[in-house]
Specification:
The chain is of the alpha+beta class. The protein has a domain of 437 residues: Multidrug efflux transporter AcrB transmembrane domain (Multidrug efflux transporter AcrB transmembrane fold, Up-down Bundle), CATH 1.20.1640. Helix 10 crosses helix 19 and helix 13 packs antiparallel against helix 24.
């Protein structure tokens, strides 16, 4: 094993000499690589919709796409308007103007429904009439009272178009399900949601100024606001991360080359990764949005270690430039190769995830890490060789740092028993906290409680008990199966039963299916008598009444049934709540429909049910990802160190910070959701890097001295400063997420930055203590 390590070190050293002799060829190759990676960057898109979480061939996604193909969108934009007197001419006129302006100007709209154009079904001289509820705005009190009576006597309107108290009404904006241009066919995505909201928001602002109390909610609105917030986080944090790198690099190296070269390498790595992401056709989503800032703070680490070795040889030891380059690559090349591999493996573990967005991160993030390595070992030596460099002056900060590192070596080796006991105690405390972690996913909770979005959706949910849907499809398996009067009667019963399937915290706001239309038609054809607001009791009459409604030019029918009347849609309105909280309600819904319709195929779909099931898929995905990362990185550590015992034991300082972070999550009640479920594999891939650099240098020093404390001291003095700076850059860069508006970003920052700080302490104190435990104070290395 030692011979293999030596061969790698010699190979990296020779690479340094080759780059010095062929620096312009190397620079040309790097420029070509960069140009190729950036070629597709203008094709990059942002997608914060729920579709982004799924693989295209995911059965749940296929079922959802089939639902959209048959019935249209389930996630609508809900515009709520609150008023103490909805039934007065001034308010109704304002509602009409708002409705009309939306219809005329908002893109990608299939239909807008409000009290203005709500379906009004009645009979007149044996003729079925289906028309808009308000043909003209009533102005007399008698007409207004009649309208109010008509609205409150229609169950279809209640908790859908108007609240039970009559002080809240909505515009239900149904987007098109599909964009079908000549060269473009896709389901409506975040880009179209943003186009819609770009028109809707100014309209709402205008009507608010006119005195209307207006709220905007629904999945498309949440998706658009997430897109804006994510873009803002990326635009704000990336420059700050670069600034942090500049500050730390200046403090460490105190020379221009020590700042400009690493920053250039990080910039090219990030841009190349974004280009690769665009080339692969992967959008920026809720998961991959962490990449730019993550790569900025991670990508600088390799450069720090190479430059530290170079400056040590060139400035301190007086070596020639090409010899110093070869020394730096030979001494650190294998270690940064191994850190690249371990970090990439930690991130590649996401490729096995059942969630599409997470699997995409497992592809894209390793590309960025590998690009940072390539740029470091090729471009950095080439730049050093091309441009002149002056000798540095003594730095008093280095003397202070050396004294601190010597103290760390003494404490960690001489107090190793206490350190091991404290570490074991912390691990037990961490496990206690980790057991309190709760699974959760509610994108709405990521926004501040004072945000307009949360206030709006809370207002809609309070008034109507629902701004989201659970969609059930009942497939009879045969054409015209819905004409069966007994089946139609059961559908009508399900509407009443479903209203009782909610809980105190998750009430059912409204239900809708084909039986509502059928009852309206049956009543209309029986002289509008309320006692006939029931489903017909014969197959022939059911078929005739549905046909009459269909030829009345009403477009509501085929949003509820397929053309051959074999499948029917059943919609249940629920509040926008945590996906896990809605699980019990969803289970009761599934149980009811499977029990009530044993002869039919039941398909439960829609954004809500998919998120519920996905969060439970997260558990299995993360167990697979974490297990893969842990096993793979442990094997790599054993290969690097060359001894099974030390390689295995070296994972303890890497697992302890992760355990402590999980404990912090439990004690702080941070949820395990889409935003931080990645933290385990990411931090495992990151925290192991410093352990590799420490043990790589320790092994060399221990082979020379045979004394653990001497080897630890020399390791800290040679690599400790670089390890500290890279950890500080990483922790500070990840801590930038604490300034983000989204709570999900804040949680991610807490978790990952804490892990890095804890990992640094583990590397400086626990790793030396373990080396003393294994080797003894003065044992000779065999």
């Amino acid at each position: 094993m030692k011979n293999i390590r030596n061969k790698f070190e010699i190979a990296f050293s020779n690479l340094g000499y080759w780059i010095c002799r062929n620096r312009f060829v190397t620079l040309f190759f790097v420029l070509v690589l960069t140009g190729g990676m950036l070629g597709q960057i203008n094709q990059l898109t942002v997608d914060t919709s729920n579709d982004a979480f799924y693989h295209p061939d995911d059965p749940a996604m296929i079922a959802y796409n089939q639902f959209r193909d048959r019935f249209g969108k389930d996630d609508h934009i809900i515009i709520g308007i609150k008023s103490n007197d909805i039934f007065n001419p001034e308010f109704l006129q304002a509602l009409h103007e708002l409705h009309t302006e939306m219809e005329e100007t908002v893109p990608h709209v299939k239909k807008i429904t409000s009290l203005i154009n709500a379906r009004n079904t009645y009979g007149q001289e044996d003729e079925l009439i289906v028309e808009e509820l308000i043909e003209e705005i009533p102005h007399t009190q008698a007409a207004l009272n009649a309208l109010k009576q008509k609205v409150f006597s229609n169950p279809f309107y209640m908790n859908y178009l108007i609240s039970e108290e009559g002080q809240f009404t909505i515009l239900d904006i149904e987007p098109n399900a599909i964009i079908n241009d000549k060269d473009d066919y896709h389901y409506l995505s975040t880009a179209e949601y943003s186009e819609m909201m770009a028109v809707i928001d100014p309209i709402l602002a205008k009507f608010r100024q006119a005195g209307l109390e207006i709220y905007a909610g629904g999945i498309p609105v949440i998706s658009d606001r997430l897109t804006v917030a994510i873009e803002q986080v990326m635009l704000e944090l990336a420059p700050l991360a670069f600034l942090l790198n500049i500050i730390f690099l200046t403090l460490l190296f105190r020379r221009i080359s020590g700042v400009i070269y690493p920053i250039l390498i990080v910039f090219l790595s990030v841009m190349g990764t974004i280009g690769a992401q665009a080339w692969l056709g992967y959008p920026i989503n809720l998961v991959t949005s962490i990449l730019p800032t993550l790569l900025i703070v991670v990508g600088v680490a390799d450069s720090v270690h190479i430059l530290s070795g170079f400056y040590q040889a060139y400035h301190n030891n007086g070596a020639k430039k090409e010899d110093a380059i070869a020394f730096a690559l030979g001494r650190n090349g294998l270690a940064i190769l191994m850190t690249t591999v371990t970090t990439s493996v930690g991130l590649m573990s996401f490729m096995t995830a059942d969630i599409g967005a997470v699997a995409q991160l497992g592809v894209i993030a390793p590309i960025g890490i590998i690009l940072a390595f390539i740029y470091t070992v090729l471009l950095l030596p080439a730049l050093i060789a091309i441009f002149p460099m002056r000798k540095s002056r003594p730095n008093k900060l280095n003397d202070l740092a050396d004294r601190l590192l010597i103290w760390v070596a003494e404490v960690s080796c001489r107090r190793y028993k206490e350190i091991l006991v404290i570490s074991a105690g912390l691990f037990l405390v961490a496990i206690s906290g980790a057991m309190q972690i709760a699974i959760s996913h509610n994108a709405l909770s990521w926004f501040p409680e004072t945000s307009e979005l949360r206030k709006s959706i809370a207002a809609i949910d309070d008034a109507l008990h629902g701004s989201a849907t659970l969609e059930v499809v009942i497939d009879t398996g045969k054409a015209e199966g819905l004409y069966d009067p007994e089946l139609m009667s059961r559908l009508d019963q399900s509407m009443k039963i479903a209203m009782d399937l909610g809980t105190e915290s998750i009430p059912i706001g409204n239900t809708n299916t084909i039986s509502v239309i059928l009852k309206e038609v049956n009543r209309a054809l029986h002289a509008n008598q309320d006692e006939f607001y029931v489903v017909p009791d014969s197959r022939e009459l059911t078929a005739q009444e549905l046909l009459l409604f269909e030829i009345s030019e009403a477009d509501d029918l085929h949003k509820l049934v397929t053309e051959d009347y074999s499948m029917v849609r059943f919609t249940i309105m629920v509040p926008s709540v945590d996906a896990i909280e809605i699980k019990p309600v969803l289970e009761k819904v599934i149980s009811h429909f499977q029990t009530f319709y044993p002869e039919a195929k039941i398909i439960v779909t829609g954004v809500g049910p998919m998120l519920v099931e996905t969060m439970y898929d997260v558990l299995t995905s993360m167990v697979k990802s974490y297990s893969f990362a842990l096993i793979a990185i442990t094997i790599l550590m054993i290969l690097l160190i060359g001894q099974v015992k030390i390689g295995t034991v070296s994972m303890i300082p890497n697992l302890l910070p992760i355990a402590l972070v999980m404990g912090i999550m439990g004690w702080m009640a941070l949820p395990f959701d889409f935003s931080n479920m990645l933290a385990g594999s990411i931090t495992l891939g990151l925290v192991v890097d410093d352990t590799i650099h420490f043990l790589h240098n320790f092994r060399r020093n221990f082979e020379i001295s045979g004394q653990v404390e001497d080897a630890v001291r020399e390791t800290l003095l040679s690599a400790g400063r670089a390890i500290f700076i890279t950890s500080a850059v990483l922790a500070a860069g990840l801590a930038l997420y604490l300034t983000a508006e989204l709570r999900s970003s804040v949680n991610f920052g807490i978790i990952t930055s804490s892990a890095v700080v804890l990992a640094l302490l583990a590397d400086f104190f626990l790793v030396p203590a373990l080396m003393v435990l294994i080797h003894g104070h003065s044992a000779r290395h065999s």
